[in-house]
Specification:
binds fe (ii) ion, Hypothetical protein af1432, 177 residues, single chain
């Protein structure tokens, strides 16, 4: 719960800075992990029951499904109809190439909220989140990939795709200057 509240208010503050509706950001933060309490078997069963597509990575690490299931429950249990909020919840764990602003805000808030345990270069990433959102996404995905590799955890290919997209984006920006 502390993490959820941390994400909600961090998302709202990112919304202030980057010009997004803080109420929507707050709501996406409040609900983003609403399916996290399910165990692996329940994640798989409920996804199948509600026709939520399960990727190979999700089959191997069903907890990844809490993002898609979270969007589903936000719509069905909490009556959220705003697609922006649902989309942000849906991709909050892996990100995706070309995220829109609400997706970026939730993805970054989930990583930088103040209750997070010590993470490498977190101070730098927290600053970037407010000054250069895309650069913070590059660094978050870079560190997430390194962490998953080190711990030999299942890598959702979408995390790698998100990283590749933001690496390209930042590199092309550098070339333009
Ligand atoms: Fe999550
Ligand atoms: Fe979270």
């Amino acid at each position: 719960m502390e993490h959820t509240i941390g994400v909600a208010y961090t998302a709202a503050s990112l919304a202030f800075v980057h010009g997004y509706d803080p109420h929507k950001a707050l709501l996406s933060g409040m609900l983003h992990d609403c399916a996290k309490y399910l165990d692996d078997a329940q994640m798989l069963t409920l996804s199948k029951k509600h026709a939520i597509p399960v990727s190979e990575a999700e089959e191997m690490a069903p907890s990844l499904l809490h993002a898609k299931l979270g969007a589903f429950f936000a719509a069905t249990e909490y009556d959220v109809t705003d697609e922006e909020i649902l989309d942000a919840i849906r991709c909050h764990t892996t990100g995706r190439p070309g995220m829109n602003l609400p997706e970026k805000i939730l993805f970054v808030a989930d990583y930088i909220e103040p209750n997070r345990k010590e993470l490498p270069r977190i101070d730098e990433i927290r600053k970037e989140a407010y000054t250069d959102l895309d650069l913070s996404i590059l660094h978050i995905t870079e560190d997430t990939l390194a962490y998953l590799k080190e711990k030999a955890k299942t890598l959702d290919p979408q995390t790698a795709e998100t990283h590749a997209y933001y690496r390209e984006l930042i590199a092309s920006r550098g070339a333009a200057h």
